[in-house]
Task: structure prediction
Amino acid sequence: MSDLEDADRAARLRALEERIEAAKVAEPEKDHSEEHYSQAQLAWRMVIELVAGLGIGFGIGYGLDSWLGTMPIFLVLFIFFGLAAGVLTMMRSAKEVQEKQLAREAGEDEGDTRGD
Result:
């Protein structure tokens, strides 16, 4: 009976190892850059880019005005430059996300046509 029990254990162990290997193969690891961003994360990223542009513009303008003694001129000018830079950065981020989405959809469509 002990030979029968050993054979049963060995068979169960082989089956378990096969299931573990199948589970490892079924779920490939994703690279960090391939992770999907939620809409909230994207929105926060864009808000931060806009506010950073405004803040940097404000800082440069205020610094120049304090240094040169011309209080509102450079402050207003560089706030507008910061706003423009922030909007430009937001547009680049949106374009990047859109291109990734289109590439992902194109890859899925190609995968669908190959299977037929």
